[in-house]
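User: Predict the structure for this protein chain, please.
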Amino acid sequence: MSQILGYIGQSNKRRLSPQMPELPEVETTRRGLVPHVLGQKVTAVRIYDRRLRWPVPGDLAKKLVGSVVDSIDRRSKYLLFRTTAGVLIVHLGMTGSLRLYEHAPPRRPHDHVDIRFGNGRVLRYHDPRRFGAMLWSATHDTHALLARLGPEPLEAAFTADYLHGALRRRTGAIKPALMNSDVVVGVGNIYASEALFRAGIRPTLRANRLAKTRCERLIVAVRETLSAAIARGGSTLRDYVDSDGRAGYFQLDYFVYGRAGQPCRVCGTRIRATRQAGRATTYCPTCQK
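Assistant: Here is the predicted structure, written as structure tokens:
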């Protein structure tokens, strides 16, 4: 049987609604791939099915083969494989996964692209719903999907002054604003809910009513939440595991997400649920104001 060196992502084999990988899961994916792919020459590319959210470039093999992977970076929820020829941009969508094989098995349904490296390992992109993407750019900074994204939440540009200014004209609720990539990137439903709890901010509060002092508290909470999730290998809500085959465990630390009706871990009040912008929102009515 082929040895699977890495399995990164989620599958829908249980026919449950998939949870889109968020920043911690994508960052865990990146860190797991680096030891096996960095500095490797691409020796072959095989495209089985181009039909993803946007078609896989037909000349991807011509672009990639012979190039060397200089670095693997992350921008928002995009993985950026920087090579000597250009940048391969990968988004996992809702059900995408990257699997690194020492000896690749025969192609299965929903396997879309294989990339073989000089060390013999194969990186395979698998995506049942095909909402992900595998694109090419001469440089990621000029790609339309990435050029206008907001700041990274773990980097210095994400400050209280910036956030307060960005929210000033937003009359909608703070949680959807926090999930807007124009404001800050990579903070999805799970981690927005958890960060708002840590900051003591109710998700339904109007964004432009957030004082600068509360913006400072929210910045800290976002960073603490994402850093803790990365340290725990992300969240495993379906079948997500990291590049060493280990499941993420941050879901064991949730304060509010997925805990509607259960007692708050801090005050004991029942966690409430509502919907915002079509997404489930959970919060503690006592701890969050």
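Residues 16 and 242 are 20 Å apart (CA to CA).
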